[in-house]
């Protein structure tokens, strides 16, 4: 993965190639494509939940999710059957926080993940079957010393594997601030925001956050300015805010074809997320290697 030629390094990310998108290590190791998409979504959810429990800002959480997604790209990337989803998620969040202004200790990271992987975790229980009353406070969940030292060794080893896999490119430029700047440039986000402009900004950022869970890996296939423009376009259309009648997106170097593709992709994210939740409503998506092996074996038996 490398930045596109001619792109400003301050506004660009390394993007996945066509070859990387067509084949993954997980698929080569026998993980069905639909299950791989579910695992990506589950990993992003796990990272998001851990970041929230650690009280990290959305910027750090979003960057960690992108790093997590980068790791499993291409035939040279990680495989869900070898590199446990939970370990890569923890390493992504630990590494991203470490190079930010809010580094987290290994114990804090591992305690949170131990809670989220426990039977009482909200990620382990279907919304219909859990009242939440039986769940202990996440802050009171601690690993024993022996378990902690073993988990810490795994965390640091996974971080090393992760860094090598992504060629030590840890930069993740997010489109959120770019989108707000573009809204101001378009004159629809004045210094003193109105109810309409605030709703537009909120809706735009919501689309960008939802896109982190996209099965199309939009953050790995398109640069931040294109994502920002598309989120603005879609949010304005949904809320009914009038934007310039000219092809304003071209000012930000986004062509109509790219805009159309991303608008459709962003608009479909919510429905896909809902379908994933329904598909796994009776059980939970595999988060460990053992759980993944059981799910693959179950599918083999069902398919004869």
From TrEMBL:
One of its GO terms (molecular function) is cyclin-dependent protein serine/threonine kinase regulator activity. SUPFAM superfamilies: Cyclin-like. InterPro entries: Cyclin-like_sf, Cyclin/Ssn8. GO terms for biological process: regulation of transcription by RNA polymerase II. This is Cyclin-L2.
């Amino acid at each position: 993965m490398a930045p596109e030629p001619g792109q400003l390094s301050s506004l660009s990310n390394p993007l996945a190639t066509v070859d990387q998108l067509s084949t993954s290590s997980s698929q080569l190791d026998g993980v069905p494509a639909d299950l791989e998409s579910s695992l990506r979504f589950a990993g992003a959810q796990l990272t998001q939940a851990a970041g929230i429990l650690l009280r990290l800002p959305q910027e750090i959480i979003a960057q960690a999710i992108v790093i997590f997604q980068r790791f499993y790209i291409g035939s040279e990337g990680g495989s869900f059957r070898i590199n446990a989803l939970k370990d890569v998620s923890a390493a992504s969040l630990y590494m991203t926080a470490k190079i930010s202004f809010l580094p987290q200790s290994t114990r804090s990271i591992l305690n949170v993940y131990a809670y989220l992987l426990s039977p009482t975790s909200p990620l382990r229980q279907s919304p219909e079957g859990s009242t939440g009353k039986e769940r202990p406070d996440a802050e009171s969940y601690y690993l024993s010393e022996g378990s902690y030292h073993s988990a810490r060794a795994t965390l640091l080893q996974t971080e090393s594997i992760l860094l090598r896999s992504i060629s030590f490119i840890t930069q993740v430029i997010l489109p959120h601030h770019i989108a707000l700047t573009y809204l101001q440039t378009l004159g629809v986000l004045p210094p003193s925001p109105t109810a309409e402009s605030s709703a537009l900004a909120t809706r735009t950022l919501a689309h960008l956050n939802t896109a982190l869970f996209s099965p199309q890996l939009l953050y790995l296939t398109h640069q931040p300015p294109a994502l920002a423009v598309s989120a603005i376009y879609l949010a304005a259309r949904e809320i009914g805010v009038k934007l310039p009648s000219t092809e304003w997106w071209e000012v930000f170097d986004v062509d109509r074809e790219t805009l159309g593709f991303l608008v459709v992709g962003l608009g479909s994210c919510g429905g896909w997320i809902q379908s994933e939740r329904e598909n796994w409503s009776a059980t939970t998506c595999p988060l460990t290697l053992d759980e993944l092996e059981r799910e693959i074996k179950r599918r083999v038996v069902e398919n004869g």
